[in-house]
Write a structure and sequence with these properties.
Layout: H1 2-21, H2 24-43, H3 54-67, H4 69-101, H5 103-117, H6 121-132, H7 136-160, H8 164-172, H9 177-214, H10 219-229, H11 233-261, H12 263-269
Helix pairs in contact: 3-11, 4-5, 4-7, 4-9, 4-10, 5-7, 6-7, 6-9, 7-9, 8-9, 9-10, 9-11, 10-11, 11-12
Length: about 270
């Protein structure tokens, strides 16, 4: 009995250790730690005018936070982002569903969505400035426009990928078009919609910064551009790190939301931790 106990405990400990080492969070944290250490080491070898390193960026971030510039700029950038991204989601999801569900809509308007998705942001920014001015409205318009297309196209693809047999089952029960959309098409498209939203997060953040560069010099984009013009590289990186962190957190929230809305998809695809 004693021998069995002594051999069982180390084995269980080793199994727990292997589980921890192979967990997704541990691998991610290790990867980030290694990247930061390498950046710190090699960044110190670079002229401060051309680059920076994590410890210097952390100091600049603390100084900007204590002075109130960084929090103020973040909330200033967040307002048009929330409004513009919400408009993109509210319009993109139903339009994408209509394009995927009805051939006439796809034939008539699908080409514009496809072309709009390839539209370069820099090309339309001056035009938007003429239409909406240089304030809050133009930022919302740019963010909404650039975020709309990934959401719409992903929803469109999701609806098109639904098996025809599933639609026929709904029709066989004399389901109306509205009922089929709500009870079959929409739930089956949720994974694609969430994927589109996650893609749109990156596009929306890019649009937000570009809008701040070219319109009213404000928010996080204002700090980045001002610091770059003054060759303050560490200060320039501080709002960039904030943006990267915000994007990661927003993507994690969308992923969690998908787990809540469509738990069946997580189980089917084996994405559970």
């Amino acid at each position: 009995m004693m021998t069995t106990d002594h051999t069982t405990v180390p084995v269980s400990i080793r199994m727990d250790l292997v589980t921890i080492l192979m967990s997704r969070r541990f691998i991610t944290l290790t990867s980030v730690a290694i990247a930061l250490l390498l950046w710190e080491f090699f960044g110190r070898q670079v002229n401060p005018l051309f680059g920076s390193y994590p410890s210097a960026i952390a100091v600049a971030m603390v100084e900007l936070t204590l002075s109130g510039r960084l929090p103020s700029a973040f909330f200033q950038s967040l307002q048009p982002f929330v409004v513009g991204f919400s408009i993109a989601a509210i319009l993109g999801i139903p339009i994408g569903m209509l394009l995927g569900r009805f051939r006439f809509m796809e034939a008539a308007f699908g080409i514009y969505v496809t072309a709009g998705n390839a539209m370069p942001l820099i090309a339309i920014t001056p035009l938007f400035m003429l239409w909406f001015g240089l304030g809050f409205t133009v930022k919302v318009a740019i963010i909404a426009t650039l975020s709309f297309f990934p959401i719409c196209m992903s929803t469109w693809s999701g609806v098109k990928s639904i098996p025809k047999s599933l639609i026929e089952v709904g029709e066989s029960f004399v389901g109306s078009r509205r009922a089929i959309l709500q009870k079959i098409v929409l739930p089956a498209s949720v994974p694609y919609i969430m994927a589109g939203i996650r893609l749109a997060v990156g596009k929306g953040i890019i649009a937000m910064i570009v809008a701040e560069f070219f319109t009213a010099l404000s928010g996080l984009g204002g700090i980045i551009l001002t610091a770059a013009n003054n060759f303050e590289t560490a200060e320039m990186f501080a709002p960039i790190i904030v943006l990267l962190t915000f994007a990661i957190m927003l993507n994690a929230f969308v992923q969690w939301l998908e787990h809540v809305i469509a738990p069946w998809h997580v189980q089917v695809t084996g994405q559970e931790d």
